[in-house]
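Hi U.,

Before I forget, here's the chain from the pilot set. I'm dumping it here mostly so it's searchable later in email.
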Amino acid sequence: MIITKTPYRISFFGGGSDYPEWYKKFGGSVLSTTIDKHIYISCRLLPQFFNHKYRIVWSKIENVKKINQIQHRSVKKLLKYNKVKSGLEIHYDGDLPAKSGMGSSSSFSVGLMQALLKLKKKKISQLNLAKKTIFFEQNIMKETVGSQDQIAASIGGFNKIKFLKNEKIVIKKITSKNLQKLNSNLLLLYTGIQRDAHTIANSYVHKLSNQKEKNIRKIIQYVDLGEQFIQSGNLDDFGRLLHETWMQKKELSSTISNDKIDQLYSQFIKNGALGGKLLGAGGGGFLLLYIKNTKKNFFLKKFKNIVNIPFKFSDKGCEVILNSLDK
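Structure:
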């Protein structure tokens, strides 16, 4: 049996510039971190005496004899992509809900990709795992997805990731004594609204290189500025910059926000938050807020019906936490 543990991520600045439609022409940059919330995937070889050859356990339980009968599209495509011939049982468990802006789709793909490679006793570096998953999601699955989530999930940590026009990826680890304080000034709130990130992204991604160029260029500038605020300790300015990037992002498409989210966000700002943004493509899911740690208790008491998810920044990417095949 193989069990992988893959983190979710929070993206602060630069989202949109990590789509190949943009960075192959102009280059891109993002600032993000992984957190201590994870997706767990277990894979085991299935003995031949079962009536089924593949058992997939997620929100459904699938027992099928052929790969083409598998309903979970990512699982089906990954098994084919990795040329899996043997019978398998695959279980998926996540600390956070899917379709919520935390990069769960790519974390799932990274975790299962790693597990299948380990089953075939193939070794792969963290960066190549990310690149292989990027290729899979963008070219095999043909999803409208960026390239930052796969890197975050594979490598882990607080990073500035640059996407060059020649498709080279440059990763800079951010280390600062101020990261812990930044973490303490952030809230992760669940709006309860699930959405399809690919549908939302499709509404603006293919127009990034023309009509939305001004917004994306501004969002990219915030990456270096955000890093500077962390290193200098001007964390409140980091929070205000989250507000600015949210204003820019909302201009990309009318589907990124809605009246309910705008009203919630306005109330949060009036009650102490300096800034924030919906994570991922937008439309719902998790809302990240910057609010001074000293004001958190008052804030959470006032909005006691909002689901708050305590979290910490993490340094680890995708890990194999059990590999019984090596024994």
